[in-house]
Amino acid sequence: MQLLGKDSLIRSVKVMNKVQWVGILKASGTDALAMRQRHIEFELDLPQAHTDFLESLGISTHEIQEIKAWAKPPGG
């Protein structure tokens, strides 16, 4: 039996949701532009980890695709 892998229990555990995470970032002084830039950098450096993180927050597949698209060049 494989405990760790693509569909592991670790990935399915929701520790925090999107609203909570955004609240923490805003409370620390992060504005929407800075949040967007962090997503872009995360996507460019570690695209699969970025996807895993967004999924862990309970973000929908459609919204994840929109967020990941921010890192693509215009027309790309």
What this model shows, in words?
The N and C termini lie far apart (41 Å). The protein has helices at 9-12, 18-27, 32-45, 47-56, 61-69. It has one domain. The protein contains 5 helices and no strands.
Summarize the structure.
The chain is mostly helical and 76 residues long. The chain has 5 helices and no strands.
Shape: globular
Q: Helix- and strand-based class?
A: mainly alpha
Biggest sheet statistics: none
Radius of gyration: 14 Å
What low-confidence regions span 5 or more consecutive residues with pLDDT below 50? Answer: none
Number of strand elements: 0
Q: What is the CA–CA distance across the termini?
A: 41 Å
Strand content bin = under 5%
State the domain count.
1
Mean pLDDT: 87
Instruction: Tally the helices.
Output: 5
Approximately how much helix is present in the residues? Answer: 55-70%
Return the string of H and E elements: HHHHH
Topology:
Blueprint (H helix, E strand, L loop, with lengths): L8 H4 L5 H10 L4 H14 L1 H10 L4 H9 L7
Helix pairs in contact: 3-4
Key traits:
76 residues, mainly alpha, globular, single chain
